Amino acid sequence: MSEEITELTEAELPANVKALWLKAQSAFELKNYTYAISLCHAVLKSEPGFYDARKLARNAAASENSGKKKKKGLFGGSGLSLMKIPAMGKKDPVGAMAALETELVKAPFDGQANDLLFDCALRLNLLNTAAFALETVRRGSPENTKLLHKLAEHYLARDMPDEASAVYNDIVKQDAADMDAVKGAKDATARASMKKQKWEEAQSFRDVLKSSDESAEQENANRAAMTRDQMMEKLETLSAAYAGDNQNLSLVKDIASLYEQLEDWPNAYSFFQYAYDLSDKDVALQSKAAYMKDKAAEFQISELKKGVEADPENEELRQQYEAVMAERTGEQVEEAQQRVDRNPTDPQLRYELGLALYNSGDYSAAIPHLQQATRNPHIRTRVLLLLGRTFKAKDMHDLAIKQLSDALADLVGMDGTKKEVLYEKGLIHEDMGDKEAALNSFKQIYEVDYGYRDVAQRVEQSYSS
C-alpha cells in the first residue's frame, strides 16, 4: 500500500477489491451482517480511503446489534485495547483505523471510538471519513453534544455552513441552554446565506436583494446595463425618496447597493450598517456592512500608500498613513477579540485574534491564542508557522524552530505550505548562525522547486564558497 491514502469512489476501486465490495453489498441485502462486515474489513484493508465500506460496515453492525442490550464498554468493557489506539494512531493511523473498525463491530455508535476514528482520518487528510465518524455519533448517540460540536467545527473548517447549521440545530434539540450551539446555528446560517448569495462578490443589485419582488425590479434596471452616469442619476432619485422616508429598509438597501456598484465604500458601509439597524438584526446585512467597512479601510490605506510612494519626502502624509494603519490594526484586534469573547472555544477565532495581535506587534499577547488554535487540525500547520514567526520576532529562536519542526512533522508532500515552513526555518537557522541546518532546509526546497524565492541562489552560493 502506498503511503499516501486518498478517498475514492466505487468506480475507482481495483477490480479485485470491487469484487469483494459487491459481495459485501449482497451479503448485507441478504441480512448476513457478520459476513458483510468481514468483507467490508477486507475491502478497507486494501483501500482504507473507500469510506462507503465503513458506512456499510457500520449499518451492518447497527442492524446486527439492534435490540441487544447496549454495553457500557466496547467488547464487554475491554477498554484496554481502545486505550492503546491513540498512541498507535500517531505512528500508524491506517493500522489504528483498522483496529477501530474491529472495535466498532460491537458498539458502532460509541463516542470514544468514533472520535478516535475522526482523529486518525484527519491525520491522513480523509475528510469525508472523518465527518462520517462523527456523523455516526450524531445518528446513534445524539446526546453526545461535545462530539457534535466537534463535527460542526469540522464542517465550518471545510466551508460547509449548511451542514454545520444542521448539526448545531441538533445540539439545541438536545440542550436548549447550549448558547454556543444557538450562536453557532445562527452564524452558520448567515455564512451559508452569504455563500449562496455571494455577498462578498456582489456585482449586481440582484446579489444583495432577498425578496423576489425586489429582485425582479432590480433585474429590469440591470438589463439596461447602467453606466456610471445612469447610476448617479438613479442614486439622486433614491436619495430624494430617502429624504422623505428614511425608515424604508428596501430603499436603504437599494442605496447601499448603488454605492457598492459605484465603489464608494464609505457610503456603502454607512447605508448597509443602517440597513442592518433597521432590519430585525439581519446577520447577512451585518456581514455585508462589515465587508464594506473593510473595503473602505483598504481603499483609504491604499490611497495613502500610493501618496507616500509618490512623495516619500512628505512627512505629514507618511505620519497620516502610519496613523491610519495603526488605527486599522487596532480595530482588527478589537473585532477579533469580540468574536473570541462571543465564542471562546472556537480555535479558528483564536487564530484570527492571534494573527491580528501579531500584525499589531503584540507578540506576547498573540502566543496563548495561537497555542489554543493548534487544537484545530485543519489550521494547525498554519498556526504553527505563525507561532514560529512570533517566537522569532521575540528572538526566541529555539522555540521558533520547535514550532516549525512540529509543523513539518504534520506535512507529507512538498506543497506550498511545506516550502514556506522550510524557508522560514532556514532563515531562523541563519539568524542562529547554524549555516548547515539552514542550508539543509533550503536544499529540500531546491530539490523540487528551483525557482522558489531565492533558494537557488542560496544553495548554489554555498557550493561556490
TrEMBL record:
Pfam families for the chain: TPR_16, TPR_19, TPR_8
InterPro entries: TPR-like_helical_dom_sf, TPR_rpt
Protein name: Tetratricopeptide repeat protein
Phylogenetic classification of the source organism: Bacteria, Pseudomonadati, Verrucomicrobiota, Verrucomicrobiia, Verrucomicrobiales
